[in-house]
Amino acid sequence: MQLRRRGAGTGLVDPVPLPDLSVIQGAVADVEWVLHAANQDLPCLAEIGLVPGRIFDTELAARLAGLPRVGLGAVVESLLGFSLQKGHSAADWSTRPLPEEWLVYAALDVEVLVDLRDALAAILEEQGKSEWARQEFEAILAAGPPAPKADPWRRTSGVHGLRSRRQLGMLRSLWEARDELARRRDIAPGRVLPDSAMVSAVQADPANEGALLELPVFRGRANRRLVATWFGAIARGRALPEAELPPHSRTGDGPPPVNRWADRDPAAATRLQVARAGLAELSEKHAVPVENVLSPDLVRRIMWSPPEARDAAGVGAALRAGGAREWQVELTVAVLVDAVGRA
């Protein structure tokens, strides 16, 4: 974990031997924390006892400011003229001791973060978006840690190449075996067995351990030792009763896929088309990505099931209930009222 504060320099703290860093909380709790893509960092920080009271998210600020690229390196280069050192972002950071050059790389990652925050804050102030950013940052903190996703195995890369419920059952069983092993070892699941290997194994449907070992990834020494684990998982999925097989897709509480709207509800399809066009105009006018102007999922939900009162009050209430910030409500409500009126 990297910390930098003006006048104090940069510190690197290893949470592996020090899993509870709440002692640091008292020293920094009353100041604004500057993070890049805070949603990625906050859950990890909370695990080691660090929870900010205020944040400034430089990635989100760059989006609101209309910068064409919002990665940390690109924003630093664009606004400050520095090029961040590259080369170790994909390294295995569970390695101990960490090589000296990796530590330098980690320290440089926060070297100019406070300066970057000031540069972005000045741009937002000039554009009249400081209040937008404040509301966005508060919403991030208020949201808390993300809820566990239902059926996380469905996020396996390549899952759409599996056609039958039986194949999905085998994949789920493999995913669960990999997840259990990764948790025991405390390493990323993809380092235990890549997603592509699981999908390939399910598609090959090996009859025995020998057939599984013929597949490319499973020929390696590590997976040869685990072949009984992987084949056992496949066999359990293959043996599941029909009633216990997962459905082709998970039933959600939202509207159907957009490509079905024209057939199922042509009026809703028209509403969505009008809303998207209006939001695209707002996005261009204010130089803010359309997904930051308003959540696409919330737009779909309101267009599919508009509020009973299809005026500014009714649509505004629906937006707030769906988590839209006040600046988003004020900016978009007229566009959505126009859209929901296209019945």
TrEMBL record:
<dbReference type="Pfam" id="PF18305">
    <property type="entry name" value="DNA_pol_A_exoN"/>
</dbReference>
<dbReference type="InterPro" id="IPR036397">
    <property type="entry name" value="RNaseH_sf"/>
</dbReference>
<dbReference type="GO" id="GO:0006139">
    <property type="term" value="P:nucleobase-containing compound metabolic process"/>
</dbReference>
<dbReference type="InterPro" id="IPR010997">
    <property type="entry name" value="HRDC-like_sf"/>
</dbReference>
<dbReference type="GO" id="GO:0003676">
    <property type="term" value="F:nucleic acid binding"/>
</dbReference>
<dbReference type="Pfam" id="PF01612">
    <property type="entry name" value="DNA_pol_A_exo1"/>
</dbReference>
<dbReference type="InterPro" id="IPR002121">
    <property type="entry name" value="HRDC_dom"/>
</dbReference>
<dbReference type="InterPro" id="IPR012337">
    <property type="entry name" value="RNaseH-like_sf"/>
</dbReference>
<dbReference type="InterPro" id="IPR002562">
    <property type="entry name" value="3'-5'_exonuclease_dom"/>
</dbReference>
<protein>
    <submittedName>
        <fullName>Ribonuclease D</fullName>
    </submittedName>
</protein>
<dbReference type="InterPro" id="IPR044876">
    <property type="entry name" value="HRDC_dom_sf"/>
</dbReference>
<dbReference type="GO" id="GO:0008408">
    <property type="term" value="F:3'-5' exonuclease activity"/>
</dbReference>
<dbReference type="GO" id="GO:0000166">
    <property type="term" value="F:nucleotide binding"/>
</dbReference>
<dbReference type="Pfam" id="PF00570">
    <property type="entry name" value="HRDC"/>
</dbReference>
<feature type="domain" description="HRDC">
    <location>
        <begin position="164"/>
        <end position="244"/>
    </location>
</feature>
<dbReference type="InterPro" id="IPR051086">
    <property type="entry name" value="RNase_D-like"/>
</dbReference>
<dbReference type="InterPro" id="IPR041605">
    <property type="entry name" value="Exo_C"/>
</dbReference>
